[in-house]
Design a protein that fits this description.
Layout: H1 6-17, H2 22-44, E1 53-57, E2 63-65, H3 66-80, E3 85-90, E4 97-98, E5 108-116, E6 127-135, E7 157-163, E8 167-172, E9 177-183, E10 188-193, E11 204-206, H4 217-227, E12 239-240, H5 246-256, E13 259-262, H6 277-290, E14 294-296, E15 316-319, H7 321-332
Parallel strand pairs: 3-5, 11-12, 11-13
Antiparallel strand pairs: 1-2, 3-4, 5-6, 6-7, 7-8, 8-9, 9-10, 13-15, 14-15
Bound molecules: 2,5-anhydro-1,6-di-O-phosphono-D-mannitol and magnesium ion (MG).
2,5-anhydro-1,6-di-O-phosphono-D-mannitol is lined by residues 62, 91, 113, 116-119, 208, 244-246, 262, 274.
């Protein structure tokens, strides 16, 4: 079998579709390299002093794990000096991180959730990194938070790495979704799945059921109809999975279909859902749509939401098209 590396794939994509300029290619390769470093740390576990709490809190008041902080540092350091970026923003940092003056400024902006699935770090369950790439607005000199307030449709690339039994990188530059597996001996990313497609129909759903009593009526109805199984209104049995790492749940859905939900609920109207628009919902929505699936907040397409703040949260319904359309239609009734 001829092995295609990430570099070769990106060069050939550029030749064929002219959608990956050199600076964007550098950016993707640098992020992929950083993910390799994170994967290496993850693999060391207790032997690498990466487990446990960092003893700090992030801007959303969540306790940071050591690996959250380490992964954030790895991504910042890797991406600062190459000249491909104007600024970065991270789930783990309160404000944006402009590229320091000592380095040249590029035309892209990178957003990331450095370590997704933090509650799974210490129990050896799959975790990941999610990233999104935007273009800096024309004529921008000193980047501000406002420059990041672009809807998901403006993303020029999005991807995630999943650190599981295998380390994989799933990437889109707006022309389908491809998956690369890390060859740990060679240290290279090898294209292992081309043009991933999410089956339109599914019998599998993912939601944190322990929040059921707080859900809004459309979600109550949608899930209870699935739970009713063969003799219920849906006329078929469903299966449930919840890994509590969005990357791992989304990766399963890209591989065999399914619907993933993190809805808003009745608890705190000021906090609609748990997941963040800019670091989680937007990049995953782009990937899912590029793979033939759908992604909404229950009412509208996630990619169309105009962001109002960096750490904004949104309800998320994504995956197999027919199921996302159904739960979205229940919200409209
Ligand atoms: P994190 O970015 O702090 O790790 O939080 C996001 C994670 C998602 O990966 C996952 O889908 C969700 O939180 C799990 O939440 P819960 O603990 O409510 O099941
Ligand atoms: Mg996350």
């Amino acid at each position: 079998m001829k092995r295609v590396s990430l570099t070769q794939y990106l060069v050939e994509e550029q030749r064929l579709h002219d959608n990956i300029p050199a600076e964007l290619r550098l950016l993707i390769e640098v992020v992929a390299r950083a993910c390799k470093t994170i994967s290496h740390s993850v693999g060391k576990g207790a032997l690498g002093d990466i487990l446990g709490s960092a003893g700090s809190e992030n801007v959303q008041g969540e306790v940071q794990k050591k690996l959250d902080v380490i992964s954030n540092e790895i991504l910042l350091e890797a991406n600062e000096w190459g000249g491909h970026l104007a600024a970065m923003a991270s789930e783990e940092m309160e404000s944006i991180h402009p590229i320091p003056n000592r380095y040249p400024m590029g035309e892209y902006m990178l957003l990331f959730d450095p370590l997704d699935g933090s509650s799974n770090i210490d129990v050896n369950v799959s975790i990941g990194t999610i990233f999104s790439v935007l273009k800096a607005p024309e004529g921008m000199s000193a980047p501000t938070e406002a420059d990041f307030m672009q809807p998901g449709t403006q993303q020029v690339a999005a991807g995630y790495a999943v650190y599981g039994p295998q380390t994989m990188l799933v990437l889109t530059t707006g022309n389908g979704v491809n998956c690369f597996t890390l060859d740990r001996e060679m240290g290279s990313w090898v294209l292992t799945q081309k043009n991933m497609q999410i089956p339109e129909d599914t019998k599998e759903f993912a939601i944190n059921m322990s929040n059921q009593r707080h859900w809004h009526p459309p979600v109550q109805r949608y899930v209870s109809e699935m739970l009713a199984g063969k003799t219920g209104p849906r006329g078929k049995d469903f299966n449930m999975r919840w890994i509590a790492s969005m990357v791992a749940d989304v990766h399963r859905i890209l591989s065999r279909g399914g619907i993933f939900m993190y809805p808003a609920d009745l608890r705190d109207p000021a906090q609609p859902g748990k997941l963040r628009l800019m670091y989680e919902a937007n990049p995953m929505a782009m990937i899912v749509e590029q793979a033939g699936g759908a992604a909404t907040d229950g009412r509208q397409r996630i990619l169309d939401i105009p962001p109002t703040k960096l750490h904004q949260r949104v309800p998320v319904f994504l995956g197999s098209k027919s199921e996302v359309e159904r739960v979205t239609s229940y919200h409209a009734e």
